[in-house]
Design a protein that fits this description.
The protein is α+β, with helices and mostly antiparallel strands. The chain contains two helices and six strands; from the N terminus they run αβαβββββ. It has a four-stranded antiparallel β-sheet. The relative contact order is 0.24.
Amino acid sequence: MISDREQAAFEAGIKLGALYHQWVGTPITKETAASVEKAIENSVSLQPHVTAITVRLNRDMMTENRFGYSELAGSMYEIRITTRVGDVSCQAELKHENDYPMMRLTDIDENR
């Protein structure tokens, strides 16, 4: 049997992985970044077990191509997500570290 703790961790990880691949390549500019951040937050927050999500995109990494926009890259993400299953709350993050977008669990609390 899978525990609520294991399920909460799975939910956080699967949502970060899906989010990462779903949005990479999206046309973006520094001017549209806030609306893309909000769209990602609104979309992911609809999914089961998500209780909070914060998305920030590194605008310094956005360089315009000849058509006037950049493409969203995984290295631009800084995301924090919280999932809840039963009495267990799990926090995870996705952020750029050492030239790679890393995903990790940051906290699991069985009393939240």
